[in-house]
Amino acid sequence: MKKIKWLLFHEPAELFIRTAEHFNEEINKLSATGYEIEILKLEDYNDKYNNGEACDPIEELKAGRVHMSQLYANSLAGAGAEDFMALSLPFLFRSHDHATKVFESEVGTQLLDHLQERVGVKGLSFTYSGGYKMLASDTPVSCMEQLKGLSYRKNDNAMWANLFNSLGMKQAENEPNVTQTTYPRYKVEAGAHQKYIANTGHSMYLTTIMTNAEFWNELSVQEQMHFMEAAKICSRAERIKSVDDAEVIRTDKDVQSELGISQVFDFDDAERSKLQEALDGVAKKWEKYFTTGLVDKIKNT
Questions:
Q1: 114 in Cβ contact with 83 (< 8 Å)
Q2: Does residue 144 contact residue 201 with C-beta atoms inside 8 Å?
Q3: How far apart are CA 20 and CA 127, in angstroms?
Q4: Could you say which of 84, 177, 243, 263 has the lowest number of CB atoms within 10 Å?
Q5: In the prediction, which pLDDT does 13 show?
Q6: pLDDT for the residue 290
Q7: Helix 158-166 vs helix 269-287: angle between axes, to the nearest 10 degrees?
Q8: How many CB atoms lie within 10 A of CB 159?
Q9: Element (H or E) spanning 10, and its range?
Q10: What angle do CA 118, 2, 210 make, to 5 degrees?
């Protein structure tokens, strides 16, 4: 029995625990080797293996002190895999089916290769953290025009600052009016004062399952195929479950009440089209920052 440490970093932990548990099931169905995966929340890992000190999960993975993890695409972009930021471009993915085609195509492979080249970890598959993003706000927002004058977090990255500014928004000096998140992540990211949801669907919140490169290279070719297949199976299932979770929150008033959501405003197709048109310049400006042709490949997949 081979032991694997799987480090969780993001909240809510249950979203990531279920993916790790599913991977554990699938790899042991596919492989005769037998794997025992120790799933570790960040605080538990720090207490048990890092003398209670805080750690950088990417550095732990690169150093081989953990074998696997699942991190946000934007975090990986910040660690050096800049092309992963392209996955957050506004209105890049037409649908969840389109996203799946991209993840499982040569474009997805290109992105995972980029991750390994730039960060030194082996990417296996793409997952969601709620799927499409929405905006949590402290005031009702039922159309794009009502975003004008509202504030967003000062530490949002340059691309998002550009996006929000183009909608007439401003950086917050203190508590922002608006926080970008997804339904399953609402409780973690939205402030207690942000009780209204603008369901804009303007971008995708993505994560990636990864392994330590040395651990990966020590696997036989057959075992590598098993790992890729297990990751593919559990990623597909996780994306479906994540979308289902979001839909429950979007439609169930009792669940919304439990989370502290007062009202959900769904942007209809006409309103989303207006939003997409308003953000088209931002998308065009930023696609030049990434590997030449990457964004066109994603759009044309």
A1: yes
A2: no
A3: 12
A4: 263
A5: 85
A6: 97
A7: 140
A8: 20
A9: none
A10: 20
Residues 126, 228: Cα–Cα separation, whole Å = 11
Task: Name the β-bridge partners of 7.
Answer: 40, 69
Confidence (pLDDT) at 10: 85
Looking at the DSSP bridge assignments, the partners of residue 133 are: none
Tell me which CATH code domain 134-202+252-300 carries: 3.40.190.170
CATH fold of the domain at 2-130+205-247: D-Maltodextrin-Binding Protein; domain 2 (3.40.190)
Other CB atoms within 10 Å distance of the CB of residue 26: 19
> Residues spanned by CATH 3.40.190.170 within the chain?
2-130+205-247, 134-202+252-300
Give the DSSP H or E segment for 267.
none
- The per-residue pLDDT for 156 is 66
- Among 254, 146, 160, residue whose Cα is nearest residue 198: 146
Average pLDDT per 10 consecutive residues for the chain, totaling 301 residues: 94 90 97 96 95 94 97 94 97 96 97 98 95 96 97 86 95 94 94 96 96 97 98 96 95 96 96 96 95 97 96
